[in-house]
Predict the structure of Cell division ATP-binding protein FtsE.
Amino acid sequence: MLKFENVSKRYQETGEVLRDVSFHLRRGELAFLTGHSGAGKSTLLKLIAVMERCNKGQIFLDGENLSHAREKHIPYLRRKMGFIYQDYKLLQDRTVFDNVALPLVIAGYGHQEVARKVRAVLDKVGLTGKEKKFPRALSGGEQQRVGIARAVVNKPPMIIADEPTGNLDPDLSAEIMRLFESYQQMGVTVLIASHDISLISRMNHRLLKLDHGQLVVS
Ligand SMILES: Nc1ncnc2c1ncn2[C@@H]1O[C@H](COP(=O)(O)OP(=O)(O)OP(=O)(O)O)[C@@H](O)[C@H]1O
């Protein structure tokens, strides 16, 4: 599903921040991406999102070569990925329903189809009945569920999460992880960047570890 082949990334200001990174995540696999601050985790996620381009090597997502993607093709590639962030990145002036509906509206779905899909995903993440609430009226765990619902409502084959439990206590973090595992069990490929060693060690999943830009565990 996701393949890195000898990928290196250099920023003009910082120099090489990823060096010769190779790994293969298969469909339906869940892996943590970890490493010290500055190890290159966010950069690796930005390469997958095609927000940055690698200088060497190749990246394949679902058989497509991201490293050679043309600018106008990038929005289509991004529909294959659902992104989840530590700070949720919800629109504060929109309801839960509207936040989750946004990717569907952008993709051009009709009103009824949007409503059906949003209700189904809110049910799946345990937020039925909260459609009309605004993000500030929700707990951190609930806001992250909205973030997850928005990321998966289009049914992307891959979920990419950057420190998704960084603002949550251990119980809520475990709940959010169970949600990720349930998507993995449906065949979605999940990559989670996290510093949370205790959470990672409690869960029996593959670990990708970066150290100064090199993949030292894969
Ligand atoms: N846009 C950029 N331009 C120049 N240097 C950058 C840029 N983004 C990141 N870097 C540098 O690349 C290195 C890796 O940063 P990155 O954010 O990928 O690490 P990280 O593992 O995600 O760290 P953290 O856990 O602190 O978020 C750091 O030295 C950082 O300063």
Summary: DSSP finds seven helices and ten strands in the chain. The beta strands are 2-11, 15-25, 30-35, 56-61, 64-65, 81-85, 158-162, 189-193, 206-211, 214-217. The mean pLDDT is 95. The helical segments are 41-48, 74-78, 96-107, 111-124, 140-152, 170-185, 197-202.
